[in-house]
Design goal:
The complex is a heterodimer of chains A (246) and B (848). Helices cover 34% and strands 27% of the residues of chain A. Chain A is an alpha/beta fold. Chain A has one domain (11-239): 3-Layer(aba) Sandwich (Rossmann fold), CATH 3.40.50. Mean pLDDT of chain A is 85; it is low at 238-246. Chain B contains 28 helices and 21 strands. In chain B, the strands form 4 sheets. In chain B, strands 12, 13, 14, 15, 16, 17, 18, 19, 20 and 21 form a 10-stranded mixed sheet that branches. In chain B, strands 8-4-3-10-1-11 form a 6-stranded mixed sheet. In chain B, α10 packs parallel to α24 (717-744). Classes of the chains: A alpha/beta (246), B alpha+beta (848).
């Protein structure tokens, strides 16, 4: 739902005072220290940070795979820390979309079936859902490959299918983990274009973890995680006149 | 079908080799279990049907002693007591040169008494003229199939030998199977009238039993007490079911031992399934993580893998059932042969296929698959969403489990040991203990593997160089995959060593037993339907005729009979023992100096170890014997070693036997020759004194020894087959585990190849690693196998059959074990080594 003039768009993701630590060889290692942030509907936010800074941990907490030691993770108004493991899983299938670095398409399902899977997990798949999946394939330029198995596609094509899969069930929040990390620069660029346009055209909310400066340049906001501390470092595209910034 | 399910089925279809291995694991395990079960059930069913056909509708039967029941008893029952529902029966076995190797059952009946019992034999029933049996002495009826097997038709002569007597019978007609009278029931049955049977079996004026149809309730009890009042000494009234149950009960331990062995194949099959399924989950770890991330719940992942297990289980079990039926056809012959050799005469027409047996085995197969799939299912369910579980995490977890597994292993082993030490006679408990020990050993294997590889590493470094160190480290680094493979190899080889040692010890014990038991130089007996003991009787007066053949110094006579007792049938042997024959006995308990004199005088009996074990007898306890001339309670003077019958035997002096029983016949003779006399010449002399139609089997000491060992080897044929089958299944399991391990290391080997490792060095690396695993398994399997052998020899055999064996450990068997393990492991490494050395490094790297 795009923001209406004069009113602030609703908050899709709220992180409040997140703390997370692991025991390593008998020593406590704090990965997240009082992380707090908000992402509004329609925002394209990038999370940057050096290796080992806690980006993956944060992403795990956002999607409810892991739980914080302290703090609140609220997605689409739901406090994930108050849900059971099963409830969080069911929440993921309804409200979240994923793009992985290694695509992670199911090799035993065709391209179209890979897109239908999130829809099937959400409910019944009928003609309408199939049309929607085909429509998305059309948009990522792979309509002709609907019946191919993923191992017949190139890396870039596979990631395009993965983008379509992340969007097909209309999630509240899309999480991307190094979406271009496994692609060559040209292919990466094309995937970024596609991600950018798909997200913005539909007014989606995206949180992408990346090392890519190019991807960060396209974001509305950039969050930086360093030694467990989460900070907003710049306003990305908003600073240069982007429209989705609050 | 849901997309998840479709994806899972496509995965199975895309990995046909893996699927085939898993299905093979289930199928082979189920096949062995079902084959053994079918063979046992078919034998039992054949026994039940033939017993029921012969017993007909009789509720009770009067059994006589060795000499039978006088005809007059039957006459008194019918005439004086007015018991019309009674029928005389003369029952025995014959052999025919027309059907070598198969015993015929002679059933002599009185057609006019048959209506209440075997309506198919009543004169008015059907078109068959049973009356012809009465009018023409020597005429018999056969089933059409038996007649065809013998190659005779109505009107033809049927040559037979009963005991040592040859006779020509005449086939009067052919019985056709009908309602209540199946082919199995009539198989090998020769029906004749009472007097023909009496003459054949040489018990003129006597019956072997009288069948009774007794009504239930008080009227029946009153009738039975009237019957008992006219019975001679030694005769006993029993329900027909009791006798059948007692005979079937003889097979209980034999069946249980075979079933336990067949279950072992299933256990090995489970290892194969475990390995293949875990491999298939490990391969999909990242994929499962991705599925969990997009919102597939743990339960859905569990159902997915469980579904795969079920599909594999069902397909494998169905295949196993089909394979089992085929295998069962072969095994039923071996089982029947063993029953004939050791227990009683039985002829099985065909494999019966009870739905219950097939259903049970099918369910067992599916359950075993699911059970073996549990670790794979757990691994799948625990796959963390999004983040793929790295190999090192899995291995870290496994390494942490090693001490715990060893602890559980020690506890299980101790529990198994305690079960074995329990003062029980339950064979089932013993097998429980044995399986506990096996499982304990398997769980100790990872710890032992780590320890052994640690010891081997410096040696490998010195001999193979850095590749040797890498190979050794690889075994410990991939413990989650290597430990189960080594454990399976340890169990498979230790079971082979254990069974091999047990059989070799048993054979060695029997050889030594035969050496001292067979004291006579020449043995003479009638052709017997059972290989393990002499049956029937020699012609009257033959012993006297042969005693003074030149060269014969003395004779021992042997009379073996089966007498009915309240506790079941008892094998009784009456011996007139030549002094040289005393050396045949090895006493486990009892004083030889007094035992023999009391035995000869008929004041005491000697009992075999299995008999004492079964009946809980010690020296000094009494054995009650009921003969026609009265009842004797004789003390046990000694307990002797005997491996001839697991049912046990009571031996008494001929004098005592003759006092108690009116049976004067002799079953076999043992001739002691004068010093320096060759047996061949004496056998010639003995043969020359045989009369017309006197068929006897004459064997030298060496000949009988040889024949006895042949029987021994034959009875262990089925054990050998099962041992080989179980090992085959285990070996396929180990093969698949090692192959999976090496194929999984494709990337690692690709990196090594890219860094300059030659294909030859890849060979060295892979085969050194599998060789190390084989060596570890071999070294561990030897002590494990010896423990198993000791348990089988001293606990399972004692509790199953009542005898004590001497354990013999041959060095060649132990070397064979280590060799087998190493060769097996090396062989399993060949294919991956070949594949890896041929794969281009680029391809191996890209595959990942």
């Amino acid at each position: 739902m795009p923001a209406t003039p004069g009113s602030s768009p609703p908050v899709v993701l709220r992180l409040q005072g997140l703390r997370k630590a692991y025991q390593e060889g008998g020593r406590r290692h704090e990965v997240l220290h009082d992380a707090t942030a908000e992402i509004l509907r329609g925002e394209f936010v990038v999370l940057l940070g050096p290796s080992g800074s806690g980006k993956s941990t944060l992403l795990n907490l956002v999607c409810g795979i892991d739980l914080p030691d302290e703090g609140v993770v609220q997605v689409a108004g739901e406090d994930l820390t108050a849900l059971s493991e099963r409830e969080r899983t069911l929440f993921r299938r309804r409200h979240l979309g994923f793009v992985f670095q290694f695509f992670n398409l199911l090799p035993t399902l065709t391209v179209l079936e890979n897109l239908l899977l999130p829809l099937e997990l959400k409910g019944r798949v009928g003609a309408e859902e199939e049309a929607r999946a085909r429509g998305l394939l059309e948009r990522v330029g792979l309509a002709a490959r609907a019946d191919a198995f993923p191992d017949r596609l190139s890396g870039g094509e596979q990631q395009r299918v993965a983008l379509a899969r992340a969007l097909v069930h209309d999630p509240d929040l899309i999480l991307a983990d190094e979406p271009t990390g496994n692609l060559d620069p040209d292919t990466g660029e094309r995937v970024m274009d596609l991600l950018d346009s798909l997200v913005r055209e539909d007014g989606r909310t995206l949180l992408a973890v990346t090392h890519s400066r190019e991807l960060a340049d396209r974001a509305d906001r950039i969050l930086r995680l360093d030694h467990g501390v989460l900070q907003e470092t710049s306003r990305g595209r908003a600073a240069s006149g982007g429209e989705a910034a609050p | 079908m849901s997309l998840l399910r479709r994806s899972s089925l496509r995965f199975l279809a895309r990995h046909p080799g893996q699927m085939a291995l898993t299905v093979a694991g289930v199928a082979l395990g189920v096949a062995v279990v079902v084959a053994i079960d079918l063979a046992i059930q078919s034998a039992r069913e054949a026994f039940r049907i033939s017993t029921e056909t012969v017993a007909g509708r009789a509720t009770h039967q009067v059994d006589g002693g060795p000499g039978g029941i006088p005809d007059s008893v039957f006459t008194r029952l019918r005439v004086e007591l007015g018991i019309r529902s009674s029928a005389p029966v003369v029952d025995g076995h014959a052999l025919s040169p027309l059907l070598p190797g198969r015993a015929l059952r002679i059933l002599g009946v009185d057609p006019f008494s048959e209506a209440p019992f075997r309506p198919y034999l009543a004169p008015t029933d059907g078109e068959l003229d049973v009356g012809v049996l009465l009018t023409e002495p020597g005429s018999v009826l056969l089933s059409r199939e038996t007649a065809e097997a013998l190659g005779v038709a109505p009107g033809n002569a049927l040559p037979v030998t009963v005991g040592a007597k040859s006779a020509d019978l005449r086939v009067a007609g052919v019985l056709t199977p009908g309602p209540g009278l199946g082919r199995q029931g009539l198989r090998d049955l020769v029906l004749t009238d009472v007097s023909t049977a009496q003459s054949l079996l040489e018990i003129p004026g006597h019956l072997t039993r009288i069948d009774l149809a007794v009504p239930p309730g008080e009227a029946g009890d009153a009738l039975l007490s009237r019957v008992r009042s006219v019975l001679p000494g030694g005769a006993l009234v029993r329900t027909t079911g009791t006798r059948t149950d007692q005979m079937a009960g003889m097979l209980a331990a034999f069946d249980l031992n075979l079933t336990a062995l067949s279950l072992l194949a299933l256990v090995f099959g489970m290892f194969l399934i475990y390995n293949a399924m875990t491999f298939s989950v490990v391969q999909r770890r990242e994929l499962l993580g991705a599925l969990r991330a997009v919102g597939v719940t743990r339960r859905e992942v569990r159902d997915l893998v469980l579904g795969e297990a079920l599909v594999t289980g069902v397909v494998g079990s169905l295949l196993g059932l089909a394979l089992g039926v085929l295998l069962g056809r072969g095994l039923v012959k071996l089982v029947t042969q063993t029953i004939n050799d050791l227990y009683f005469v039985l002829s099985v027409e065909s494999l019966t296929l009870p739905v219950a047996v097939l259903g049970k085995a099918g369910l067992l197969g599916v359950a075993a698959t699911v059970l073996a799939g549990v670790p794979a299912i757990r691994e799948a369910v625990q796959a963390p969403p999004r983040a793929s579980l790295t190999r090192s995490v899995v291995e870290d977890r496994t390494r942490r489990l090693v001490p715990r597994a060893a602890g559980v292993g020690v506890a299980l082993g101790a529990l198994g040991g305690l079960l074995l030490l329990l003062p029980t006679r339950s064979v089932l408990v013993s097998f429980g203990g044995l399986f506990g020990l096996l499982l304990g050993m398997a769980l100790l294997t990872p710890l032992a593997t780590v320890a052994f590889v640690g010891l081997l590493r410096p040696v490998l470094f010195r001999t193979v160089g850095i590749l040797g160190t890498m190979a050794a480290r690889g075994v410990v680094a991939s413990l989650s995959r290597t430990a189960p493979a080594v454990a399976a190899l340890v169990v498979a080889v230790s079971v082979t060593v254990g069974l091999g040692t047990m059989i070799a010890s048993f054979r060695g014990t029997v050889v030594r037993w035969l050496d001292h038991t067979l004291q006579a130089d020449v043995y003479l007996s009638p052709p017997a339907p059972m290989a393990s003991r002499a049956e029937g009787a020699l012609p009257r007066g033959l012993a006297e005729r042969l005693r003074d053949v030149p060269g014969v110094e003395g004779v021992s006579t042997y009379r073996g009979v089966t007498v009915p007792t309240e506790e079941g049938e008892m094998r009784l042997v009456a011996l007139e023992l030549h002094p040289r024959g005393e050396r045949a006995f090895r006493f486990q308990d009892g004083d030889p100096s007094t035992a023999f004199s009391r035995f000869r005088a008929g004041e005491a009996v000697l009992v075999s170890e299995p008999f004492a074990y079964r009946r809980g007898l010690d020296v000094g306890d009494t054995v009650t014997l009921r003969g026609e001339s009265g009842t004797a309670r004789l003390p046990v003077a000694a307990i002797f070693t005997d491996y001839g019958s697991d049912q046990g035997v009571v031996m008494m002096g001929r004098v005592g036997y003759d006092r108690l029983f009116q049976d004067r016949r002799i079953t076999s003779l043992g001739f002691f020759l004068a010093e320096g006399v060759e047996p061949e010449g004496v056998m010639e002399g003995l043969r020359s004194r045989l009369g017309e139609g006197e068929a006897v089997v004459m064997r030298s000491n060496q000949g009988l020894r040889q024949a006895s060992l042949e029987v021994f080897d034959r009875t262990f044929a089925i054990t050998a087959v099962l041992r080989a089958l179980a090992f085959t299944v285990a070996f396929i399991g180990v093969l698949s585990a090692l192959m999976a391990l090496q194929l999984e290391r494709g990337r690692e080997l690709g990196v090594l190849r890219a860094n300059g490792l030659t294909p030859g060095q890849v060979w060295t690396l892979v085969t050194t690693q599998t060789g190390v695993m084989g060596a570890v398994a071999g070294v561990l399997a030897v002590p494990a196998g010896l423990v198993l052998a000791a348990v089988m020899i001293f606990v399972v055999n004692k509790r199953s059959f009542g005898w004590t064996l001497q354990m013999e450990v041959g060095p060649e068997l132990l070397l064979q074990a280590v060799g087998l393990a190493i060769a097996g492991a090396l062989l399993a490494g060949l294919l991956p080594a070949w594949r890896m050395s041929r794969t281009s490094p680029a391809l191996a790297l890209r595959d990942e």
